[in-house]
Amino acid sequence: MKLYKATIEPKSAFATSLKGDTLFGHLCWYLHFMGEDLGKMMRNYEQEPPFVVSDAFFKGFLPKPKLPSNVLGESMEQKKLNRKRRWVRYEDFVRGDFSKPCELEDPSAQRLHNSVDYRSAHTGGDFSPFASKEYMPSKKEIYFLIKEAFVEPVRKALVWMGIDGYGKDRTIGKGRFEVLAFEQIDFLPSNEYQMALSPLDPYGIEEIWYESFVRFGKLGMDRAATNPFKRPLVLADTAAVCKGMQKRRYVGRGVRGVSSWEDVVHQGYAILFSFGVQR
After folding, report:
1. I want to staple 266 with a disulfide (CB 3.0 to 4.6 A). Which of 15, 150, 255, 279 is the partner?
2. Predicted confidence (pLDDT) at residue 187 exceeds the cutoff of 80
3. End-to-end alpha-carbon separation of the chain, Å?
4. Whole-structure pTM value
5. Could you give the number of structural domains in the chain?
6. Best CA proximity match to 55, nearest among 201, 269, 251, 238
7. Residue 141's closest CA among 198, 201, 101?
8. In Å, what is the CA distance from 208 to each residue of 37, 204, 229, 244?
């Protein structure tokens, strides 16, 4: 499997965050509509995935690893100051220097909607507004670990997704982006720790530091009309850190049994980036 990095430039607001497991699900739909045999592609998913997708990160940055502050070299005073500084420049990550984290956040806004009674297609007698959050992301970088046979299909699916839209409210123009680059890159040299670039299923991993993340997933496209809800999954969130896996390029496992549709799989894998810590 080879490592690739895509650079995307958003062209509209987003109503769904760019998490690796959600991106994986969307790419599967686009591969299906492109005519790829998804059943064959995912046949051995629990043993070996055809591709693994990371979260989308700020261009030139990676998340700060979920290691204890004293391991990262932070004093108690620095820990308090850095609580919201969750991003590290790529060059600092490579050097193992976590002393200068950054606080980055995409602009967001609340958009008001009114509740609709779908039996009558009207708002009804009561005015029941609710708010949804939208993001206007800056340029982002997404990492892909792909088997060679699927590199071009995944790239095309990502381009199509950008044109058609990603996530909630894509049918009204949300989640549009342009793929500026899709290039093969090298893995970082092996080191003491390994950081996960997306949520993962931590089952069976002996030494890991992470924060929990609960995924309440839903199916989309033509399955959204018939029991779209998936079973909740408790995952280790992005930036979880493993130790002793220098020879692994990804970690986790493929998850089945999350839906009434037997062919549905959930990405419980995550790409690993190796790093050390300056002492």
Report:
1. 255
2. yes
3. 33
4. 0.89
5. 1
6. 238
7. 198
8. 35, 10, 30, 10
